[in-house]
Amino acid sequence: MTGRWHFRDHEAERRLFNRRVLLASSAIFLLLAILVAKLVDLQVVQYEYFSARSDGNRLHVQYVPPQRGVIYDRSGTLLADNLPVYNLTIVPEEVNDLAVTLDYLSGLVELSDSDLETFENQLRRSRVPYSSVPLRYVLTEEEKYRVAVNGHRMPGVRMEPQLMRHYPFDSLTAHSVGYVSHIDQQELDALDETEFENYGGTTHIGKTGVERTYEHLLHGQVGYETVEKNNRGRVMRVLASTEAIAGNDIALHLDHRLQIAAEAALGDYRGAVVAIEPETGGILAMVSKPAFNPNLFVTGISSRDYDPLVNDTVNTPLFDRSISPYPPGSTIKPFLGLAGLQLGLVDYEFTIDDPGYFQLPGVSYRWNNYTMRTAIGGGHGITDLRKAIYQSSDTFFYDLGHRMGIDAMHDFMSLFGFGGNLALDIAYARSGVLPSRDWKLETRGEPWYPGDTINSSIGQGYMWATPLQLATAASMIANEGRAVRPRMLKSVGGEPYRFEEEFSAADVVLEDPDYWRYMRDAMTMVVHRPYSNVFRDYGTAYEAIARADPDMNYKIAGKTGTAQVVGISQSIRSSTEIRVSEQNKDHALFIAFAPAGHPRIEPRIALAVFVENGEHGSTVAGPVAKKVTDAWLLDILQLDLTVELEPEPAPEQDPLQLNPSEVAALDE
Amino acid sequence: MNSRDYVQVSGAPQMRPTVRAMRWLAAVKIDFSLLVLVLSLCCFGLAALYSASDGDSGLIRRQAFIVGLGVIAMLTVAQFDMRLVRRATMYVYLGGLALLGLVLWIGVEANGARSWLDLPGLPSFQPSELMKIVVPAVLAGYLSSRPLPPRLWHIIVAGVLVLIPTALIVLQNDMGTAMLVAMAGFFVLLLAGMSLKLVVAGGLLVLLASPLWYVFFALEHQKNRILSFINPYTDPAGAGYNIIQSQIAIGSGGVYGKGFGEGDQSRLDFIPESNTDFIFAVIAEEFGFAGALVLIGLYALLLTRGLLIAVNAHNMFARLLAGGIVLIVFFNVYVNMAMVVGLLPVIGLPLPLISRGGTAIVALFVGFGLLMSIDAHSRRSQSPRD
Fold first, then answer.
1. DSSP sequence for A548-560
2. Interface touch A36/B248, C-beta < 8 Å
């Protein structure tokens, strides 16, 4: 065969080919050796490193958020609950066309503009890739069904179950219980290291009210689970877990029925009611009206819902009136009267002849009897402390305050909690102002003028107090001086809760304990002293409370107050002379406790009613208080308040009733 | 000579059945060692594919069907007479060019490359894959009928024969296959004794030209692949992601692997293209260094067997064809593995016989069939001399 066609050296060609095959074989061997060396490097030398990298890829520690404790009222009714809800969420990375998906979804579930707005806001924020973004909270049964049936057409759309805070009474508990909402960066920054860890899986935090105060009790302890995720972040299985510890369930002193009654009693007025159990300091009701629906904040309030709440400068629904200071007006007179007795500036016999105005010695300026500007003028005539309370004589207290001086007034009234915060668990309650010389110098840089004292004597001028403070102070009169530290929390996990601080509370001790009885009687007359022939000798709240309910079977000790909102010159004798706009109208106030002077039953409720621009403490705030005490004593506690009718004791000699004919007229 | 043998065997009707069966087996040209090696690799591949695809039985059935088809093609081709093959190469080559032209005209696009033909009555296939075998065959035919080592003129003609299909495949935007086809031609030239000085000079020229290519011609994703090869961690979530995840998979496999179906990287979809280009990472993760060595060993045995066939082939056409087929298979295997472990930039090439595939697998089987035919031919032509 060799050399048949050409002069080719087939053997030489064959040797050449074999040499080239040898060359190629060597190259193959060398290259494979490099490959094997690389594999040794990766799989043997760097095995630990890549093994860790592989675990790092797939293993993730996830937080398991604890279930938040629920909040009961004192009757065991839920005020804050956790409801299982299904939320519609979207994983943007898995969606083909977001606009199309959203359009399709809007045919299945109700999507409001605010839902879309919130969704798009969250979309813009930085987030973990492949994490879901909520689109709609709390799907209805029908919506759930529709999404489930059509889910396969919408990659990236999921329904995620969640326990969602829910406030069954809506706006009723908006301010007192408060609400939870999404944790913001500021709140995260405020957490220390262990707290931060504990909030790893938590989305919501208490923002206001009890939810904020008792965040530490309600939150619970975070759990962990080690999960395996695929490269799209989907959890494939749970490898290990540490259970979360649910937060404590707590119960409040609050009673939802009284809360409802107090809220209803305010009617259409803006205002606040704070009711306290004098024996314990427990807050039975704390209403600020108008309020808002706290459930809106849980899911993340849309600007469409939020703007009206913020922009309503008249109703200010987000503003908690129950803990905000206002001029207390005449409601401070009982405390000032007790100060006068304690300091020996007045006694049971002491009287003044009230001409309807007060003048400082050597000063021509007249402080008018404020509450009478709207009436026919003139004064209360001969007036003792009791009449000065039930008729609310300004002149008497102008004189008393002037003689007492602002610093003595300050020291005595601070015992009742004015100018401070006696509340144990309402840290954010305002302190108001209990003025003094030092206070004015410090805050205003001005000296105290005698005229300042005159204004303060009737709860005006620099004097500011919150409804909570007024209710607290009223509780202390009801307790005859025993200290009251208001509180929301009643029990934790069924165990009664005891505050450390309550043992350090200071009681008010008077020279003569009978002063308490005296003041209680005077305050009872505010409500129960009827009309008589004597000019201006009835209780200021008689008409609106006792006379309005002839069947009333218990007594209320109270004090009306009407607080000036804007400075109306003292020279104007009647408010009809100026055009008083709605928001310049006086605030109506009323403090009370009941039952008062009952032979068997200690006062069970003390309260303060504040009606913004209500004008008259007697006719507007008084009936509100009556409805609340009725609800508590008669409807809720269902006390048997009937008193064995003893023969009416002979009317004691009244130092005011000098004229026997007037006494006879009174008896009619 | 061998035709006489053939007549002898087929024309012996009165032998005992065992003898007859043995004669028949000898007549049917099968290289059992090659067959066993190829089938072992395919089984390895099916197992890896089962794991990589998360037990996708449809995919496995399809792959097994294609392997079966390949085996039939291989055994059929093994029966071809080498002279027939040699005569047919130029027509097959021209037919292949026609098909490539047809692809440019009515081709179907998949994964960014427009390289499929979807002709009525036929399953869709890639003509470019066939050229991996056809180009070495046509070069072997051209060069073996001329004195070796080839003269410059012959090298140039051979280069043109290689460049035409390569260019057509580049136009399909299938760089990986184009490179394979070009290398197939180069390997045949190399085996034919092309001057090594010329090879080195050409290599230097490519080396010098590559910066120019990088600056002026390289596409964005090609640049990214090169950059991420140099340091994958410059863009760990983008261009570097594939190689990082692949290395994590291989490294975390350790010496003995995580076990069949237990590869976390593959099971949780961290390995990209785990059914095709990166299937070696799945094997290295689940079967470890030991498994990778077994796979490399199987390939090495296959190559050794192939080179032995080439060396023992009785004429230059058969030698060049067998050597070219063996080297192009090695090149394909090596580039894929080196890419997966991070020794080479990411180049879109599957792992022969292991990765999911269609035409590519059948083309390989045709190549092995040719090896078998060459082997049988050379044995027969040697036997009378013995």
1. T-TT--S--EEEE
2. no
Q: Is the Cβ of A17 closer than 8 Å to some Cβ of chain B?
A: yes
Count of CB atoms situated within 10 Å of the CB of A289: 27
Task: Report which residue type is found at B210.
Answer: S
A61-252: what CATH class? alpha beta
Pairing type for strands A250-252 and A71-72 reads: parallel
Q: H or E stretch including B97?
A: helix B82-106
Candidates B280, B241, B354; CA nearest to B266 is B280
Which listed CATH number (3.90.1300.10, 3.40.710.10, 3.30.530.20, 2.60.40.420) goes with A257-661?
Answer: 3.40.710.10
Query: Which entry of A181, A324, A330, A393 is annotated as an active-site residue?
Result: A330
On whether the CB atoms of residues B369 and B323 are closer than 8 A, the answer is no
Beta bridge partners of A241: A225
Q: What is the pLDDT of residues A3-30, one digit of tens each?
A: 445 567 888 889 999 999 999 999 999 9
Whether A542 and A527 have beta carbons less than 8 Å apart is answered as: yes
User: Is B192–A8 a contact, with Cβ atoms under 8 angstroms apart?
Assistant: no
Q: How far is the alpha carbon of A18 from chain B, nearest alpha carbon, in Å? A: 6
A327: helix, strand or coil: coil
Q: Are B292 and A42 within 8 A, CB to CB?
A: no
Smallest Cα distance from B251 to chain A, Å: 4
Interchain contact, B248 vs A18, CB within 8 Å: no
Give the closest of A13, A34, A50 to B316, CB-based.
Answer: A13
User: Does the model's pTM come out above 0.90?
Assistant: no
For B26-78, the pLDDT digits (tens) are 677 788 899 999 999 999 999 999 988 888 889 999 999 999 999 999 999 99
**Which among B252, B319, B341 has the least Cβ separation from residue A17?**
B319
Burial of A463 (0-12, 13-18, 19+ CB in 10 A): buried
* Residue A330 is a catalytic residue: yes
Which regions in chain A score pLDDT beneath 50?
1-4, 374, 569-575, 577, 579, 655-668
Q: Considering just the CA atoms, what is the radius of gyration of chain A in Å? A: 37
Rg (CA), chain B: 22
Domain ranges of chain A: 61-252, 257-661
Asked whether the beta carbons of A393 and A418 are under 8 A apart, the reply is no
Q: Tokens for B46?
A: 């099916």
Residues of chain B with C-beta less than 8 angstroms from the C-beta of A58: 264-265, 268, 270
The β-bridge partners of A252 are A489
Predicted complex ipTM: 0.90
Q: Which residues of B touch A38 (CB under 8 A)?
A: 338, 341-343
Report the half-sphere exposure of A313 (CA within 13 A, side-chain side). 1
